[in-house]
Specification:
Elements: E1 2-6, H1 15-33, H2 36-46, H3 65-73, H4 81-102, H5 104-125, H6 137-150, E2 155-162, E3 165-172, H7 173-192, H8 195-199, H9 205-222, H10 232-238
Helix pairs in contact: 1-4, 4-5, 4-6, 5-6, 5-9, 6-7, 6-9, 7-9
């Protein structure tokens, strides 16, 4: 299933969401301009490597500035065109509405903390891994978790190819994002049951899980109690009581 767009109109200009997409784009274009050797060095230095994180001796973070930095820089690196484009497309679809409800500054803080929570979740699950974890998908999963609660009745126009014929259907956001989370959860459990798969790297399933759960648990903390005028449209339409 490929999401094309959602049916919720953003009532304000999503400056932070576009800025994040722009920054990711600039970094990715820089990545692909590098020769392979330098690119691998970049990923090794600025990717999040769980084995380098003093997770069980947190005071050592004070003496590990590069490890701390990698918890943030990893979410702006990507491993290829598919990885980059798929992440940015999902962020483009769901991020503007979440920023609309939170406000730009709150959304920025939420996004960064969501990426941090996702990275720490992955590191705690596989603390001895020396494979650099990169990508914005953990932070984007937090955005999806927030959207899941803020706009459960929204529709996601989705492309489903059947027998090489494209079909476009509207899927309830609650179902679409819930199904996505369930798929990530079971994929993560399957990876845990296969230590060889975990050690080889690949998709950081638990970063997705951790980011989504972070979004679910904290979205209300980042959403103003009293909606701004342009936000009342959402509440009146989706929560008439």
């Amino acid at each position: 299933m490929l999401p094309i767009r959602d049916t919720i109109r953003s009532r304000s200009f999503p400056i932070v969401n576009y800025a994040v997409i722009g920054l990711n784009t600039a970094v990715f274009l820089f990545e692909i301009s590098l020769p392979d050797r330098l690119l691998q060095q970049l990923i090794s230095i600025f990717g999040m490597v769980p084995a380098r994180l003093p997770l069980f001796e947190p005071w050592r973070f004070l003496f590990s500035p590069l490890a701390v930095l990698s918890l943030f820089t990893h979410m702006f690196l990507h491993g290829g065109w598919v990885h980059f484009l798929s992440n940015m497309w999902i962020l483009f679809i769901f991020g503007d509405n979440v920023e609309d409800r939170m406000g730009s500054f709150r959304y920025f803080v939420f996004y960064i903390l969501g990426g941090l929570a996702a990275a720490l979740t992955q590191a705690l699950v596989d603390p001895t891994s020396r494979v650099p974890a990169i990508g914005a998908s953990g932070a984007i999963a937090a955005v999806m978790g927030a959207y899941f609660l803020l706009f459960p009745n929204a529709k996601v126009i989705t492309l489903i190819p059947l027998f090489f014929v494209p079909y476009f259907i509207e899927i309830n956001a609650f179902f679409f994002l819930g199904l996505w989370f369930v798929s990530q959860f079971f994929s993560g459990v399957a990876a845990l049951l296969s230590p060889a798969q975990m050690s080889m790297g690949g998709i950081a399933w638990f970063a997705h899980i951790g980011g989504f759960v972070f979004g679910l648990l904290t979205v209300k903390l980042f959403t103003p109690r009293r909606p701004l005028p342009y936000e009342r449209f959402y509440l009146d339409e989706y929560f008439p009581w």
